[in-house]
Amino acid sequence: MNISIFQLPGRVCSTAAIREIAAKAETPYTLICLKPHIEWVYLGLERMVQVMEMTGATMVYADHFANGQQCPVIDYQIGALRDDFDFGSALLWDTAKLKALVAQMDTDYAFAGLYDLRLRAERLEHVPEFLYYEIEEDTRKSGEKLFDYVDPRNRQVQVEMEACVTAHLKRIGAYLKPGDYKPLPEAGEFPVTASVIIPCKNRARTIADAIRSALAQKVRAPYSFNVIVVDDNSTDGTAEIIKKLSVECLEFRDKLIYIAQDKTWHAIGGNWNVAIHDPRCGKYAIQLDSDDTYFDETTVQKFIDAFEAGSKPGMVIGTYQLTNMAGETLPPGVIDHREWTDDNGRNNALRINGLGAPRGFYVPLLRDINYPTTKYGEDYAVGLRISREWPIGRIYDVVYNCRRWEDNSDANCDVVAMNRNNWYKDRLRTWELLARLK
User: Fold this and answer.
1) Is 298 exposed, middle or buried (0-12, 13-18, 19+ CB in 10 A)?
2) Is the Cβ–Cβ distance between 416 and 71 less than 8 Å?
3) CA–CA dist 394, 396 (Å, integer)
4) Lesser CB count within 10 Å: N end or C end of the chain?
5) pTM of the model
6) How many whole angstroms separate alpha carbon 117 and alpha carbon 105?
7) What pLDDT, in 10s, does the model give residues 169-213?
């Protein structure tokens, strides 16, 4: 076959390396391999060429085997802007289109060369057939890979990736200028200043720690707060623990509110919606996951102060530290998302997979937007929506303990679950991108 084959050291590579490939490619098709050991199933490469000829795609990628296991990947969509999108390690390009795209690349990146190239591609075609074998050397669990993009060791890579996606958004007309915000809706009357929202389902091991952490908060006069716990039909004794705590903590009788969900579908997003639309909810709603705790007794006050500041944000995002269940810090430690800037944070939000935690919301705005009724990505969806039209404030002090354990929803996802989660977040980005293009 008329294919030029080139090796790259992975998805993080320089513009110079991409230019060199384009200059040396002299055949109709160019295969870029991101891993050194690729073996093809019988006629696998021929099948990729066949699909490219049928579709006129710029680049074709395929499902494959990794370390002997089936490794399906997902379809590309216009919102698949995260720089860690998994194409597998065999990328087949139409050489003429590759050369044309490289001729347009006007910035020299040290790390974002391949990212820049594929953002410019018109059509990336997924072949849902297992066509080759590769060796995956990163065998960590999904929960261990989750925080790679905020690891300080990767900071320079992230700076370049942000610059690259921002340039892309400007090219296609989806870039949001800094400071162009809508006014927040009027507040009206609320029973308390803030509500800590704890949605839960089958968290008998951790729910007491979370509730006690919330009830231990101290706020200055004239501010006030309560704690709203929404139990979504737990079957492991979680509800009984919550009820027992409400009896034991008599001094907090007026602060602890228990909501038992009906038997319909709610998920995390639906539990949040019930809490924020409850008449007992405060003006600000502050997140506390049922397996986490607040860093100390000042967290709620720090959120109130951030909301009451002059910028009047629609959402405030804090800083957390990763710990185990014993409270010992886990790498990479403090996650503060200092890459966020007032000027460009809402553009970069379309590239990264999350905006940070814990999250607080201005409830009159959140009641207009609402959470999607899903158990994954619901927070990211709301954050994207708010960032489009209202400012987001930040707290860079550690205010939250994100406790990692075997029951975290993202601790050890298999490839099917990871693909489902990634596809959904790409879908959220696609919808948000279309809204911004309008």
Assistant:
1) middle
2) no
3) 6
4) C
5) 0.92
6) 8
7) 999 999 999 988 999 999 999 999 999 999 999 999 999 999 999
